[in-house]
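# nightly structure sweep
# worker-07 picked up a monomer target from the shared queue
# config: single-sequence mode, recycle default, output format = structure tokens
# input follows
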Amino acid sequence: MNESSIYLTGREKDVLKLMIAGYSNPQISEKLSISLSTVKAHVSAIIDKFGVTNRTEVTREAFKRGFIDNDE
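# output follows
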């Protein structure tokens, strides 16, 4: 499967990049100026869309599917 197999909104992509960078939900909330509950909703949607069960698996799948380059 590649990136085109999964559609992420622009905001979900923003959250994904910060998740991969190791930011916590409260840190993502502050960085993107959105509520913590909104961050949690985005994280949950991302996990569901990738078909995984946790943030670590999201990171692995994001690299595998080409969402994030090794250089980022």
